[in-house]
Amino acid sequence: MTKANAHGQSTDEEDKAAYEEFRTLVNMTAHQLDKWLATEESRAVGQKDGDAESVGHKSGRRIIELLGAKKSDLQPDDYAHMRKVAGYVKRHLAQRPHGDIEHTNWRYSLMNWGHDPLK
What UniProt keywords are attached to this protein's entry (predicted)? Predict the structure, then answer.
């Protein structure tokens, strides 16, 4: 859990750690992720909160923006999304199914969040 300062914002040190963890866990390039998000498999997986687009698919579009952003331009909500992505990827990796994962919804969901477990 990220601690906030007295103003409810994370510290520079915490933002740096969130950035590094995000960059480690997101192992797809912006181009690879953009290409993946255009597939039927990508659109078919994930939780849809009353919307046609899943939470993970929306996150993937935001991840592409973050991958293309200059570190100096990142805002507090960008670091918050990086933390969300890292948390999701770590939780999902802990639920790895047995057997071949290449064509599984588990892998496809992770890929929506920028992580391909086969890399």
Answer: DNA-binding
